Amino acid sequence: MRCNAIAPGDVNTNIGTTMAEPNEFGAKRAMSGSDNNPRSGDPEEVAKIALFLASYDSGFVNADVIRADAGWLAY
Predict the structure, then answer these.
(1) Between residues 51 and 16, the one the model is more confident about
(2) Can you tell me the mean pLDDT for 8-23?
(3) Which of 5, 37, 42, 58 has a Cα at 20 to 30 A from 49?
(4) pLDDT computed for residue 39 by the predictor
(5) Which residues are CB-neighbours of 25 under 8 A, at least 6 positions away?
(6) InterPro entries from the xrefs (predicted)?
């Protein structure tokens, strides 16, 4: 048995469309404060990681967390 995880960063989805608009202290402003700000990801990019983890090609990968955040954790 293998156990792996995906830790996505900001991904372009409609998950927050029913929420109130962010105010001036919102996450988008906090994330946009750097010229080196990574871009938002596409759902297809995260899906490709999930497909890899579900495939035989990842048979040697175990107990790992794959970050898909365009390097945001490094900031």
Answers:
(1) 51
(2) 78
(3) 37
(4) 82
(5) none
(6) NAD(P)-bd_dom_sf (IPR036291), SDR_fam (IPR002347)
Contact of 40 with 12, CB cutoff 8 Å:
yes
What phi and psi, each to the nearest 5 degrees, are found at residue 41?
Answer: -90, 165
Those residues whose C-beta lies under 8 Å from the C-beta of residue 43, and which sit 6 or more positions away, are: 11, 12, 13
Tracing tokens 């372009």 back to the chain, one arrives at 12
Provide the pLDDT for residue 21.
67
Residue 64's alpha-carbon distances to 26, 31, 61, in angstroms, are 31, 26, 7
Q: How far is 22 from 32, CA to CA, in rounded Å?
A: 13
Cα within 13 Å of Cα(27), Cβ side:
6
φ and ψ at residue 54, rounded to 5 degrees: -85, -10
pLDDT in tens, 43-57: 999 999 999 999 999
Q: How far apart are the first and last CA of the chain?
A: 34
Give the pTM. Answer: 0.75
